[in-house]
Design a protein that fits this description.
Mean pLDDT: 88
Number of strands: 10
CATH superfamily: P-loop containing nucleotide triphosphate hydrolases
Number of domains: 1
CATH topology: Rossmann fold
CATH architecture: 3-Layer(aba) Sandwich
Structural class: alpha/beta
Radius of gyration: 17 Å
Shape: globular
Order of helices and strands: EEEHEEHEHHHEHEHEE
Length: 233
């Protein structure tokens, strides 16, 4: 992906959920572009469409209509194997629910993406341990998820998402289970990732998270309500 190509480009994106007689328009004609190395925070009340937008960017859900291009690849209408390759090779996900494998230690969960992608990365354990150190969990590297608190599991999931230095990081409330000090450290890590050239999209209710962003996108009722620069860092 060249520097001139948007990391993410969305045009006319809609998503409708049908649940029996109930029809919910989660997204209604959303347009959004994200530059390479840009940090964007998506804010808005619950039910405004923030998480739905993130899931569509990651190819985790199918849009009802509209165009989604991520890392230069069409997401809407892509076949499952192509979406799997896109997520594996270009995206890092940070979910509210950590999705750690319970039988693996923290350090094994962090370098798992390299094994899945069959990347011949040197010193997997050393790189994973360095990331765990950066999120304050170096001493917990050999613990399994059941031996970690919710906040610690979140930090492991963040280290895992950043391990392969993906072009694009998609984060859903990454500081929601963390205390303010640890949350600030995680946001600094994401800020550094953007400064290093990775594109970062963070769905958040945290005003401090928005302050770290280059741009804040506000959503309401499935539409972009406001797009503006974040407060000066």
């Amino acid at each position: 992906m060249s520097a001139e190509t948007p990391a993410v480009e969305v045009r006319g994106l809609t998503k409708v959920f049908d649940a029996g007689e109930v029809r919910v328009e989660a997204l209604r004609g959303v347009d959004l572009s994200l530059r390479r190395g840009e940090f964007v925070s998506v804010m808005g009340p619950s039910g405004s469409g923030k998480s739905t937008l993130l899931h569509l960017l990651g190819g985790l859900e199918t849009p009802t209509s509209g165009r989604v291009v991520v890392a230069g690849q069409e997401v809407d209408g892509a076949e499952d194997r192509d979406l799997t390759r896109l997520r594996r090779d270009h995206l890092g996900f940070i979910f509210q629910f950590f999705n750690l494998l319970p039988s693996l230690t923290a350090i094994e969960n962090v370098y798992l993406p390299a094994l899945i992608a069959r990347r011949r990365t040197e010193d997997l354990e050393g790189r994973a341990r360095a990331l765990l150190d950066r999120v304050g969990l170096g001493e917990r590297a050999e613990h399994t998820p059941s031996e970690l608190s919710g906040g610690q599991q979140q930090r492991v999931s963040i280290a895992r998402a950043l391990f392969l230095e993906p072009e694009i990081v998609l984060a859903d409330e990454p500081t929601g289970n963390l205390d303010s000090v640890t949350g600030g450290e995680i946001l600094a890590l994401l800020r550094q990732a953007a400064d290093d050239g990775q594109s970062v999209v963070v769905v958040t209710h945290d005003p401090y998270a928005a302050e770290q962003a280059d741009r804040v996108v506000r959503m309401a009722d499935g539409q972009l309500d406001e797009v503006g620069s974040a407060a000066a860092r």
